[in-house]
Design goal:
alpha/beta; Rossmann fold; binds S-adenosylmethionine
């Protein structure tokens, strides 16, 4: 059984390396060269290209969240800050955005990006999703992009998300979930965990975890990946493809748009 610490370490090293080499991509997302597939082109056009292209996500939580001026937003696993900077524009000067990430290299890049675009309503805090450095009941909307699947303790993440949300607050995340079992060699691979595949859980389990901590009105809508995208992601994870039929992975893993609410 892989420990929480070793998963955190593997994931942190993976993303530190990614940002240092400025290579994008989280598992089966096509975020590298086709960000405009994830986000509306006009949304990305509001930021310099090198900022908008540094994405490790698997969806568009900004459009999903329908942010309003004045809201306080928390981004779980903010990476290089793309979603925080887009959120900052939506909530305006009366609102604020907090990005939390455990990888110091990501925090540094996100802070530099915020400075570069003069985003004064955004701050980045180093910390764990499982122990958020955020005060209880202070957040209107939680966003996240391809991160919760990476956590070794998703129940803790949902408990923490529920704690920091204000009553009536919304969770709007893009994440990887599964439908059906993953092949064991994939499930056991730390590299596949860091690539947002091995840590992904069944959508039903994901919903149950959210319900158990108190979230209501939960909805999970799938966005399926094409075969080439999943192929490229698996190749990057250096998995031995002779050990299992790849089709099992194509079938099982998908990106989802997930929303849920903390009751009033
Ligand atoms: C796939 S990247 C996504 C980054 C960003 N959301 C984006 O869309 O570009 C995952 C990020 O989550 C962070 N992360 C993963 N697990 C975490 C945890 N348990 N606590 C805090 N940060 C975590 C990693 O450091 C990394 O920056």
């Amino acid at each position: 059984m892989t420990s929480t610490t070793s998963i955190h370490e593997t994931v942190r090293e993976h993303y530190a390396e990614r940002i240092k080499s400025s290579a994008s991509c989280c598992g089966p997302s096509d975020c590298c060269s086709t960000e405009s597939k994830l986000y509306p082109v006009e949304l990305l056009a509001t930021l310099p290209t090198d900022v908008s292209s540094t994405s490790y996500g698997c969806g568009d939580p900004i459009t999903l969240a329908a942010l309003q001026p004045g809201e306080t937003v928390l981004d779980l696993g903010s990476g290089a800050g793309l979603d925080c900077l887009l959120a900052a524009q939506k909530v305006g000067p009366e609102g604020r955005v907090i990005g939390v990430d455990m990888t110091p290299e990501m925090i540094e890049r996100a802070q530099a990006n915020a400075k570069r675009v003069n985003a004064s309503n955004v701050e980045f805090r180093q910390g764990y999703l499982e122990d958020l450095p955020v005060e209880s009941g202070t957040v209107n909307v939680i966003i996240s992009n391809c991160v919760i699947n990476l956590s070794p303790d998703k129940v803790k993440v949902f408990k923490e998300a529920f704690r920091v949300l204000a009553p009536g607050g919304k969770l709007a995340v893009s994440d990887i979930v599964t439908d059906g079992p993953l092949p064991e060699p994939v499930r056991q691979s730390l590299s596949a965990w860091a690539g947002c595949v091995a840590g992904a859980v069944n959508a039903k389990e994901y919903i149950t975890m959210m319900e158990e901590v108190g979230f209501t009105n939960i909805s999970v809508n799938p966005v399926f990946f094409d075969k080439e995208t999943v192929d490229a992601a698996l190749a990057e994870m250096a998995l031995d493809v002779n050990q299992y039929p790849r089709e099992e992975v194509y079938k099982a893993v998908y990106s989802a748009k997930i929303t849920a609410y903390k009751p009033m």
